[in-house]
Write a structure and sequence with these properties.
mainly beta; three-stranded antiparallel β-sheet; 41% strand; binds flavin mononucleotide
Length: 170
């Protein structure tokens, strides 16, 4: 792509071609890929693919991520609930695809590590952070979820990368 684009947002909403241009400009920012997991009160495991994850604070140790407001799992991420951030390796692209697609038993065939009564930790992840929801903030069509980290770990592997709408490996 060698064409340069620039856009001015009129008011607070984008026209339909503006949406595409905004997505394109955002997708120039390279991220990792995580799966956020939690447990329903009934014990069912829940997880979704997320690339809005970010570090937030060292003292206290905090992270954040953003959840689409129309996601069915919104009630599961209320203040005080537990969740785990699972950072994916370059060998786990299939998990990113499964946990972002509909009509899947997402945890079928996924090996889990750690305490089975807590939010699932996915076996073989690059790093993981067990958290309690500290706050939920409004952020347009998403909620910003901040987490206070209670436990974490990492291993020495290569990350899965997301750039320009595509998965990449380093
Ligand atoms: C690479 C990638 C990154 C994503 N990042 C987010 C995100 O940050 N927040 C979000 O709410 N959905 C994100 N999604 C979309 C969700 O994974 C997807 O909508 C999923 O089906 C939501 O799960 P649910 O249907 O159980 O709510 C992302 C999808 C992909 C493929």
């Amino acid at each position: 792509m060698d064409k340069e684009i620039s856009y001015t947002v009129e008011g607070s909403s984008l026209s339909s071609d503006g949406v595409g241009a905004f997505r394109s400009a955002l997708s120039a920012f390279t991220t990792g890929v995580v799966i956020v997991t939690t447990l329903c009160p009934e014990g069912e495991k829940v997880g979704l693919t997320v690339n809005s994850f970010s570090s937030l604070s060292m003292e206290p140790p905090m992270v954040l991520w953003c959840l689409e407001k129309r996601s069915q799992s919104v009630p599961l991420f209320a203040k005080g609930r537990s969740f785990t951030i699972n950072v994916l390796t370059d060998q786990q692209q299939h998990l990113a695809q499964i946990f972002s697609s509909k009509n899947h038993d997402r945890f079928k065939d996924v090996a889990l590590a750690g305490d089975p009564t807590g939010a699932p930790i996915i076996e073989g992840c690059l790093s993981w952070f067990e958290c309690g929801v500290a706050d939920v903030f409004d952020g347009g069509d998403h909620y910003i979820i901040t987490g206070l980290v209670t436990r974490f770990g990492r291993r020495d592997e290569k990350p899965l990368i997301f750039h320009d709408g595509k998965y990449k490996t380093s």
